Amino acid sequence: MNSLLFTGASGFIGQNLVLELQNSFSIKTIGLSDIDYYKTNLATSVPDLKDVFNIVIHAAGKAHSVPKTEAEGKVFFDVNLQGTKNLCMALEKTGLPKSFIFVSTVAVYGLEAGENIKEEIPLNGNTPYALSKIQAEQFLTEWCNKHNVILTILRPSLIAGPNPPGNLGAMIKGISTGKYLSIGGGKARKSVLMVQDIANLIPLVADKGGVYNVCDSHHPSFGELEELICKQLNKSSVISVPFFIAKLLAIVGDLLGKYAPINSDKLSKITKSLTFSNEKARSTLGWEPLNVLDNFRIK
Questions:
Q1: With 29 labelled, which of 7, 100, 167, 187 sits at a CA distance of 20 to 30 A?
Q2: CA dihedral (220, 221, 223, 226) positive or negative
Q3: Helices in the chain by DSSP H: which ranges?
Q4: How confident is the model over 17-62, as pLDDT tens digits?
Q5: DSSP code, position 205
Q6: Is 31 helix (H, G, I), strand (E, B) or coil?
Q7: Contact (CB, 8 A) for 220 and 190
Q8: Is 0.90 surpassed by the pTM of this model?
Q9: Dmax of the chain from CA atoms?
Q10: Strands 26-31 and 38-39, how do they pair?
């Protein structure tokens, strides 16, 4: 059984992936939790590894927050970039893996709208989150080339699974509390990925490497996701607000600041489609993602 080192096992992605992979791999984890085999803060220290691993999955990272100060922005680089460097330093001391799989993000493209976006476009993300992931990708590309390690970079879209974080989690919370409004009929489409699909990719990429956008092939609309969540929560349909009213509310939100439920930036994100192409992963790896609308359960 292949040995696997997993970072970020206590996070949303990690918790789900370890469950999916534990029957196929001998797994040891690094993280801040007491249940981690190596309890280490990668952002501040180089772990003292005792084993050599065939595969490393690096899913530890900071996400799902908007920094309000320069110090808060720096944390993204401490965790996502320096944490990656510290992990690689530890691997150099103990023994290099055959394969390194890095869980990055589609945020590296820096796009808020677009359709069928492919891996070849420039990485223009400029938030601390996106920049820290871009720099980690660049570091790993050089490091793996230098040490002859097979590198896979996975760029997931919005991730669905039990109790998801981020925007999908916010949508579920809003619908469950009756504080959610659908804008313009929920026509905008977003690429989504079932979290277990990342686990399904691991055996396919470990020996091949490459850079892949990973998402479902359907790209559900906000309206479809809203309907699915309402059904599972036994809620009636959400209230739909015409775009022109939402626009007025967003302008007011711009004036009110960070405590406003909606502003022009948020309005743009939920009314413009943003979808990514998974054709490279499907054609190169023979991977077929799950349909989110058929498989997503909120709990």
A1: 167
A2: positive
A3: 12-21, 70-76, 83-94, 128-147, 166-177, 196-205, 222-233, 243-256, 264-271, 279-285, 292-295
A4: 998 999 999 999 999 998 899 999 999 999 999 999 999 999 999 9
A5: H
A6: strand
A7: yes
A8: yes
A9: 60
A10: parallel
